[in-house]
Specification:
CATH superfamily of the largest domain in chain A: NAD(P)-binding Rossmann-like Domain
Strand order of the largest sheet of chain A: 3-2-1-4-5-6
CATH class of the largest domain in chain A: Alpha Beta
CATH architecture of the largest domain in chain A: 3-Layer(aba) Sandwich
Shape of chain A: globular
Structural class of chain A: alpha/beta
Distance between the termini of chain A: 45 Å
Strand content of chain A: 5-15%
Oligomer: homodimer
Order of helices and strands of chain A: EHEHEHEHEHEEEHEHHHHHH
Largest sheet of chain A: 6 strands, parallel
Chain lengths: 302, 302
Amino acid sequence: MLPFARVSIIGLGLIGSSIARAVRAQMPGVVLTGHDVNAGVRETVRDMNLLDDVTDTPGAAVIDAELVILCVPVGIMGEVAASLANDLPPEAIVTDVGSSKASVAAALTQALPNHIIIPAHPVAGTERSGPEAGFAGLFHNRWCILTPPEGCNPAKVAQLQAFWERLGANVEIMAAEHHDLVLAITSHLPHLIAYTIVGTASDLEEVTRSEVIKYSAGGFRDFTRIAASDPTMWRDVFLSNKDAVLEMLQRFSEDLTALQRAIRWGDGDALFDLFSRTRTVRRSIIEQGQDDDRPDFGRADH
Amino acid sequence: MLPFARVSIIGLGLIGSSIARAVRAQMPGVVLTGHDVNAGVRETVRDMNLLDDVTDTPGAAVIDAELVILCVPVGIMGEVAASLANDLPPEAIVTDVGSSKASVAAALTQALPNHIIIPAHPVAGTERSGPEAGFAGLFHNRWCILTPPEGCNPAKVAQLQAFWERLGANVEIMAAEHHDLVLAITSHLPHLIAYTIVGTASDLEEVTRSEVIKYSAGGFRDFTRIAASDPTMWRDVFLSNKDAVLEMLQRFSEDLTALQRAIRWGDGDALFDLFSRTRTVRRSIIEQGQDDDRPDFGRADH
């Protein structure tokens, strides 16, 4: 039995188009409608035949929807939700896939005060953007975090949880504020640091850009993959999860300064202790199936 | 025709054992001898039959060598080289695989003042350690940087270059000081940052270790791979390339502080500009074959 018979996806980029593909693959009976503000994207998705109907207006895509999934940058969640208000069925569940949750929950509640809103965040993605970059397996064995507001109907939460589990995700439920702290350290700060070091490397006088690229296999190249992620999406994430990101950034800077001091004063023991401690974290990630255990992700030529 | 008929490898971990495997695969005629200070490693390598002779003393491994490759942490290069002085043939070429070059060159020259020393750095590796982790293809299509001292015999340099090219590497020649600057930004700083953020994440009170691990797919997990690299090797790298690392770290910290300020004051344009700029660096790395162009390195389940 399908959690929802009629699903609407607003925003058809990497995540939105991957949800469409996964629904087609895992829940063939579902009627899929959707909209993207970009006419070129709408054309591409029509050509790929990923949905039953790609509408030219956002409202037309949600008229009969039981579930509406907003897959747009977190900075415009509120205005996109407001554009649906007149056409949205009163009993429809509205959810999203944004990487920050407290500010998104506030924006959606303000835009749709009388609707059931259950913010969500599938912790999955790649450095690619656009509908061509999506694939049905993106959410397989990845976590999807639901942050239902206080007093939200548990049956509706269970329905959304069942939907994500059908797409292959493992669902976790937590408070929006806690989600924002957890993702600030596991996702937002890593992206900020990767963007920063790739920028720093690009601006050097003593080392040419082509040298940086040639010798990137030494470690730098992993940062460039993360720093190739969608600029609009990430600008919005940092602005919308500002407090948690600044908190984690402050802790990181203190720790980095301590290491800087250890290097300057030749304190090898302090370096060795940290470097040994961090190894165990990697082991746990492999054990819990959150990464590929081949060396270098199997990227190296064996 | 073989660049060298008799090659000796001192230190049989990831890099040393990979060189042995690659020599076996690409230059079957070569007589391979070697030594490791760890008796257990010597046993393992004997069982794997990677060399013609694994000796119990370093000196015995180099008696008839034409090329001696030191594959030990950069902090002990000098003392290991000194331990070979009495048994090393006068015409043997001594090289290494260390990640910093100016300090290693000085240590080797001091230990072996009358020998031909050509420091080298194959820019290749994985987060794994030990002889079981090695593989013959590790250097394939990777760069190997040679830093011959002033006035070094060009014929000898050409001979070492030919050796590395036979192992599949692309060889570049530069001054040791320039190498140290280039690697400080492309390898040493990325490792320092990865070690730091993994440490920061492990020490949080508001976010549990298991939450960090569960949601690492958001970006954090790539840092944990780098932060799982050999602690002794990396402690030595930071201490031996101190000046260049501190210089790059200072620039990084300034850039990170600028981004921190942009987030605090909501300057979305500054964030968007940097995030767009860094995307192009990734493209160049893919175009030059220095990384896998599948999204998420093909790690995601397509």
